[in-house]
């Protein structure tokens, strides 16, 4: 795990594979599932989506066999994220709904908020902006209640994107500005840069829209 945190992903993969082999030899199914899950996360960070999905599926199968619902929810979440970025929107939606159900049953509010946001992103990709906005609003409320400012900032940004796609440029700009303020406070430069980009797109779209109305 330390290799992963220090960006030595190649070293992390080797160590996790060694651990996985040992867990299997020992018959330690919990250790096996956790090692598979961690390997999947490293593969995800390396951009190897196919391998990340395969490892998440293996981890999911073991967690289900063990009745480990927290592990199951985490594996479902990761598998859904892979499906989303690879364009399998239908698969991503199904997995996000399953993830949400498990986290809700477990009373894991952070996991539930993350699942709501993920499902909202999928609905946006499907073009269902009403559902996307509703899910983002639910996630936003939960993040605020939990005091999760990173989640709040990310959801403000997501909600701003939805409002832009709906054509509500004024509201989209407000949400982007709120997200930028939070990202700056948190010192999240990547989030700030991405949302500044979003705001630039909103300003351009809004100006074009206004010009069209005057033609």
Automatic annotation (TrEMBL):
Coiled-coil segments on the chain, per record: none
Native source species: Streptomyces rapamycinicus
PANTHER family (UniProt xref): RAPSYN-RELATED, TETRATRICOPEPTIDE REPEAT PROTEIN 28
Pfam families tied to this protein: TPR_12, TPR_7
Name of this protein: Tetratricopeptide (TPR) repeat protein
Gene3D superfamilies: Tetratricopeptide repeat domain
SUPFAM superfamilies given in the database record: TPR-like
């Amino acid at each position: 795990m330390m290799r992963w945190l220090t960006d030595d992903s190649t070293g992390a993969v080797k160590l996790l594979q060694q651990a996985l082999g040992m867990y299997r030899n020992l018959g330690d199914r919990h250790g096996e599932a956790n090692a598979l899950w961690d390997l999947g996360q490293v593969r995800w960070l390396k951009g190897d989506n196919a391998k990340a999905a395969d490892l998440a599926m293996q981890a999911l199968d073991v967690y289900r066999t063990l009745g480990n619902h927290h592990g199951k929810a985490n594996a479902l979440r990761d598998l859904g994220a892979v499906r989303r970025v690879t364009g399998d929107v239908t698969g991503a939606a199904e997995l996000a709904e399953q993830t949400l159900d498990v986290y809700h049953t477990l009373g894991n509010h952070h996991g539930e908020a993350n699942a709501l946001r993920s499902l909202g992103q999928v609905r946006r990709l499907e073009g269902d902006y009403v559902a996307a906005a509703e899910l983002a609003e639910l996630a936003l409320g939960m993040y605020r209640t939990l005091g999760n400012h990173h989640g709040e900032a990310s959801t403000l940004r997501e909600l701003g994107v939805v409002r832009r796609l709906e054509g509500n440029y004024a509201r989209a700009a407000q949400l982007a500005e709120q997200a930028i303020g939070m990202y700056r406070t948190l010192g999240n430069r990547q989030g700030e840069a991405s949302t500044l980009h979003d705001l630039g797109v909103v300003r351009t779209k809004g100006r074009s829209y206004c010009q069209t109305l005057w033609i």
